[in-house]
Amino acid sequence: MTEDWFAGDPRTNAERMRVGDDYIAEGPEISRALVEGAQRAAQFSALYADSPDGAQALLTKLLGAIGEGTYIRGPLFVDYGTNITIGSGCFANYGLVALDVAPITIGNDVQIGPNVQLLTPNHPVDAARRRAKLESATPIVIGDNVWLGGGVIVLGGVTIGENTVVGAGAVVIRDLPANVVAVGNPARVVREIT
Ligand SMILES: CC(C)(COP(=O)(O)OP(=O)(O)OC[C@H]1O[C@@H](n2cnc3c(N)ncnc32)[C@H](O)[C@@H]1OP(=O)(O)O)[C@@H](O)C(=O)NCCC(=O)NCCS
After folding, report:
1. pLDDT, tens digit (0-9, with 9 covering 90-100), for 119-155
2. How far is Cα 156 from Cα 48, in angstroms, rounded to an integer?
């Protein structure tokens, strides 16, 4: 029950969600935005199957912002889409999952391998809070010229510095500095790029 968890808090779930506080993913504003995001992503993915180049024009309606020359392959999955900002000259391969409850900010010239997941939302470890469907989200920031290998998972709250390379299959649970190669689960820096 929403009232029990948020007693005395006059804010709506959508308002709590936007500032990164605990919220429950329900209510007309959140439900409508989730459906619209899913529909726009599905339209993009369906059109991509027929006309990969033609589908790119839909991205301006689906995403919060997209820079010149950025190319995304379908299928693409988002929560809202509107909380994703991606710079110019980027490339995202098949199957990007970008759960943008909190903002996802992607710089310029970023390369994203197949089946990468950018996951801003988190569920409580506490059993009662999780059963009550509470969740919260923290932003993801990916710097210019980063390369995320295939299957990389980036968790909420993570910032990856520019030029860094993340090896295939890595799970990035905390910030990575600029100009390094990081691999593994959890992702650890294995060398600097000089
Ligand atoms: C990380 C990567 C770029 C190689 O970078 P590199 O600096 O040349 O790294 P190296 O090959 O010298 O490996 C450095 C260490 O990391 C390990 N390593 C490399 N890639 C790894 C990965 N994906 N997962 C776990 N460990 C990895 C190596 O075994 C090595 O460890 P060791 O020193 O204990 O032997 C490459 O392995 C990779 O993962 N590429 C992604 C490919 C991909 O996803 N392609 C899809 C198109 S986007």
Report:
1. 999 999 999 999 999 999 999 999 999 999 999 999 9
2. 28
**Cα 102 to ligand 1 centre (Å):** 30
Residue 113 within a domain: yes
CA-111 nearest atom, ligand 1: 48
Q: What are phi and psi of 132, to 5 degrees?
A: -80, 0
- 122 close to 84: Cβ distance less than 8 angstroms: no
Residue-range definition of the domain harbouring residue 38: 12-192
1 is catalytic: no
Q: Does residue 98 lie within any of the structural domains?
A: yes
What's 25's domain CATH number? 2.160.10.10
Residue 19 has pLDDT above 50, yes or no: yes
Q: Looking at the chain, how many residues does it have?
A: 194
In degrees to the nearest 10, what's the CA dihedral of 99, 104, 110, 114? Answer: 0
- The answer to the question of residue 31 being in a domain is yes
Report the number of distinct structural domains present in the chain.
1
Query: Which residues are CB-neighbours of 149 under 8 A, at least 6 positions away?
Result: 113, 165, 166, 167, 168, 169, 170
Of all protein residues, the one whose alpha carbon is nearest to atom 18 of ligand 1 is 183
Reported as a single tens digit per residue, the pLDDT across 83-105 is 999 999 999 999 999 999 999 99
Q: How far is the CA of 168 from the centre of ligand 1 (A)?
A: 7
CA–centroid distance, 63 to ligand 1, in Å, is: 31
- Residue 26: its pLDDT value, please? 86
